[in-house]
Amino acid sequence: MRKKMKHFHEELKRIGEEQGRSSIIVYFVLRALVIACMVLEFIRGDLNNAFLCLLSLILFLIPFFIEKKLKIELPNTLEIIIMLFIFSAEILGEINNFYGSIPYWDTMLHTINGFLAAGVGFALFDLLNKNISSIKLSPLFLAIVSFCFSMTIGVLWEFYEYASDMYILNTDMQKDRIIDEIKSVKLNKDGKNIPVIIDNIKYTIIYTEDEQGNIIETKIDNGYLDIGIIDTMKDLFVNFIGAFCFSTFGYLSILNRDKYQFLSNFIPKKRT
To answer: Are the beta carbons of 67 and 14 closer than 8 angstroms?
Structure first.
């Protein structure tokens, strides 16, 4: 174990020498903050948040793992953005409730995720296109594939949020919201596939029963509680926007790489 950790730190040092010190500094600063947060959550007895901290530490290793195993070079800017994204999503967003206290925090992160994931997908297939003579992908096909890659990552993340909420951590990653109108065929008394529309909902009352058999009443003012579907669709939509933007720029950059050099900050390259 000690040899593996020594080898890992040597690999970090080598990557830092190749790309500059900034990504390594960001990695160690964020890791120290996450470790401090994890210790604090253990002291508080919140094991769910402690697990999120541990998950963040593991996710921080992904850029270095990709570079080593796939023998590709991640741009310094891309590495830093990925680590800041993980920290912003898990530590700031979930544990410190930035999702609830800062408007559009979740929307911003999912848009960035769509943009970055499209960049990774674009790079993977662009490298394939350049290095395998039997494959020749058109610029339009390359852009479409990178877009689809990003959307797949977005869908997989929503699967993770759903699984965490329903089965794993009992979280609320798919944030609920109050709505004042519902449409449902379940409410159709005749069993027809015609939705019954209930609008202008003023409040909803939920009755639950505790272990002692006591009835507990929970009142939701100003409407009905949506349980995550609107949040999921919003996340996928902004992921779509981010993916579309990068795929469009990627397509144009193949036609004129000199004009869109800023994209090189987001596209992994084959290690020379």
So the answer is: no
